[in-house]
Amino acid sequence: MWSRLYWLAVGGPLAAGLLVMGADPAPLQDLRNGLFDLYQRAAPRPYDPDLPVRVVDVDDASLARVGQWPWPRTTVAELTQKLAALGAAAIAFDMVFSEPDRLDPASVVKLLPAEARAPAEAALAGRDSSDQQLAATLKASPSVLGAILTHGTGGAYAEKWGMASAGDDPRAFVPRFSGAVVPLPELAAAARGIGALNWLPDHDQVVRRVPILLGLDGKLVPSLSAEALRVAQGASTYVVRASNANGDQAFGTKSGITAVKIGALDVATDAAGEVRVRFTATDPRRFLSAADVLDGKVPPAEVEGRIILVGSSAPGLMDTRATPLDAAVPGVEIQAQLIEHIVAGARLVRPDWARGAEIVLTGVLGLLLALALPRVSAPVAGVLGLAVVAALGAGAWLAFTRFDLLLDPMGPGAAVLGVYGMGVLALYRDEQRQKKWVRSVFGRFVSPKVVERLAENPERLVLGGETREITILFCDLRDFTSLSETMDAQALTRFMNAYLTPMTEVVLAHGGTIDKYIGDAIMAFWNAPVDDAAHARNAALCALAMSARLEALNAEWRRAAEAQGRPWHPVRCGIGLATGPCCVGNLGSAQRLEYSCLGDDVNLASRIEGATKSMRVDILVSEATREAAGDLAFLEADLLMLKGKSKASQLYLLAGDPDFSRSDAFSRLEERHGALMTAYGAGSFGEAEALAEALAASAPARLARFYGLYVERCRGAADQTDAPAAPA
């Protein structure tokens, strides 16, 4: 029996680790990317100013000299001419000239008064437009223009290149798009190259890989960086190698693209035709101010024979991206760093065999440690486990610094630590069994303080009770029956777990005791068994936090529904609070105990929760709760005759926390709310309706439906008042 439990204990984390590594879910990819980012920050590629790449930067100084962006196309043409005259090998624009120049003199003339327009048009007769002038300059220069691929429709994409491939069809592996935002036809026809500007960051919006090729309407198109390299070398055709090309050993599997040949450069890529860039820190030597180029202040050696990328670092133009080294760099700098990476022969590779090797290593190390644990002491096993983890980290760092390989030591390391931890727990389980049982049983329902108290004093788990003042909370989902009818049993179970788990966490975080779950409802109370002098206040703050947490859950569920293409309906709940004396303790039988409470105020809290539906609010509290938690923001709701009560109960809205109660916004809300209640009580329904409509538009969203109810009440009361008397 001992052996079976031990192997279950050590086999669980090992199997889980292997399964997770095999599935490679998004969170694991995020962790791995974070680790690889740390590698780059610890040992970035050093910047080499001799590499043939420069960025002509439309920086703040350039904007101050020329004017705000976009510049007249004649200025862009002048910039291009000066760069070409200085001997640039390629001039690539990290921007899209998709619309006619709005600063063209002919366009500006149209804005003049009618009497001044004719002379100006006559003066401009026969003059080439600024776009035509730019086109002429582009045609005479080694120019490359940018385009943006989209998932919609767009203009015709001029092909300036040839495309050859070997092996599997590479179009099946690249990111695919259906449309494009392209340069003006006359500019596209004049340029020697057109490259896509699309970024494909990871979902944390960090750019780690940059595409060389993308798919557009069944064709391959190159990126801006690839086109700059092609034009600079005078090459005409890209040669794409994919799996199962001659010399590749893919054994029939379609694993993706392996390399793209651009002129004399053989660029290794990942399966999707992307390059993981070995970044450098931002260096001012990489940049040339566009203003300096226009003013002739740039030494020819900075331009001659180099690939020039024209872009902007000006914050106002919003062209910034995050990289593993920097939180915000100009997008054009990433293009430049990719070209540097390629020209310098740098490489940063996550090999195809890496994940398989990591999985095998995890299994071997986990099994060896599991065999060793029963034979050595816990400290020796701990040292052994830590040594293995350290060796994994050192090996991964060595692979990065010496061989440019990205290997992940976290999976094997986590599995080793998991095997060690679970093995030790299994070996020494008897000592911890009783406290572990108490915590596992009661930790889901009572506050951590109560768990510790019960774990230290198990004798408290006996029949009996005491009378004390507590605050009770009931929380129930709205329209749960209709909601449940849209789900099968498994989906409903997943939904309830996804809802009840965070709500329970909120209750426990606010010191509450979970009494029970009643279907979709939660019952909790405060001030028992551990004393809580501020129990009403803590319960009210918990109600606010539960409402906020449900809003966050709704946002998550909406995103998931939209991603899956299924309808989504917001989930709402009602929360009722009451404060008063109740009997609390371990209630039940000798066979089964529950720490619970009984009393009239328990029923009152349940009835108040039910009233939230008719009052169209998410939180209502009793008068006793309001008095006990007076520093929160409360508003009068209504005097209601609740089911099972012999007299009406005054109920209050919980509008916000103490900070909100002290704010000017609440003071204004409280004043206008009081005016509404006064007008409604006095029968001034027209005035009350106007106040309710204004409050419905300006009050916090949580209260808008409540004021909408009062609008309906006022209209109904006014209609009854205005109705003619029935004939005798």
UniProtKB/TrEMBL annotation:
Its EC number is 4.6.1.-. One of its GO terms (molecular function) is lyase activity. InterPro entries: A/G_cyclase (IPR001054), Adenylyl/Guanylyl_Cyclase_3/4 (IPR050697), CHASE2 (IPR007890), Nucleotide_cyclase (IPR029787). SUPFAM superfamilies: Nucleotide cyclase (SSF55073). The lineage of its organism: Bacteria, Pseudomonadati, Pseudomonadota, Alphaproteobacteria, Hyphomicrobiales. PANTHER family: ADENYLATE CYCLASE, TERMINAL-DIFFERENTIATION SPECIFIC, ADENYLATE CYCLASE, TERMINAL-DIFFERENTIATION SPECIFIC-RELATED. The chain crosses the membrane at residues 353-373, 380-400, 412-429. It holds the Pfam family Guanylate_cyc. Keywords: Lyase, Membrane, Transmembrane, Transmembrane helix. Gene3D superfamilies: Nucleotide cyclase. The keyword Transmembrane helix applies. Residues 471-609 form the Guanylate cyclase domain. This is Adenylate/guanylate cyclase domain-containing protein.
